[in-house]
Structure of Glycine N-acyltransferase-like protein:
Amino acid sequence: MAFELSEDQLKTAENELKKYLPMSQQVYGFLVIRNRVRSDPVRVLVDRWPQFRVIMCKPHGEQKSDLFKDALLFATDAAVLEEILSKSSVFDWSKYFCVGTSVSHTEIFKAVASAKGVPCKRVAKCYLMTLEDVSRLPPVDSSGISVSSLDESHIGLVSQTWKFGKDDVAVGLIRNMIANFPSCCVLDAEGKPVSWILTYASGAIGMLYTLPEHRGKGYAKILVSSLAKRNHALGYPVYSFIEEENAVSYRLFTNLGFTEDPSYREAWFRVNEFQIFQ
């Protein structure tokens, strides 16, 4: 029903997914980085090869903190997607998992979950914001500001302030992001981060956060611009997902030249969410 791609096939899949942008952005971005950087192990599965209709990136889950490493899914055929979700063993519907995919697949996930008698909740619905021309970023004045990268000593701080993290369950995800993908932060006089932004394994930039007492100083603008330039220099796609209700971030990214695709929304679905915080 679904089989895993080899290293050589991953490169072909990357090129194929490029044809479906922006809808394939997240899985495409993941493969762009996966074909260049080795981070946490992930299985990439398709329904058939080479003309796949469903492709998904499924992280290995060895401990509880790994549950925050979302699966990513792109499908061109809704019927095939529903069949895979219903009949294959790609996902264990008796356990917790989270999937990022098109909001257009909402009814499929709800229907399959209902048929299996398990709770399924959409936890986020986001705009896809892309920066097509990094050279057109507006000038940003960072004089007198110490801009650096996050390191392992900052994992706890980032985890505690992330809205989707609770206790220590997001630590594994954030450790992988800081260790393997670009990040930017503003440091205070004591060398401690007061504002930061990270790159997900899919290449999306996010987890943007500024400590309340340091807001209103333009740090977010500096960090988004800096990380966008860094990721572009590495050959990564430059994009972000902004929750529909987050007007502040939407305005920030728009002012920096990011554009929304009005025809597309990305969503995240959690199955058996209660299990992750037990």
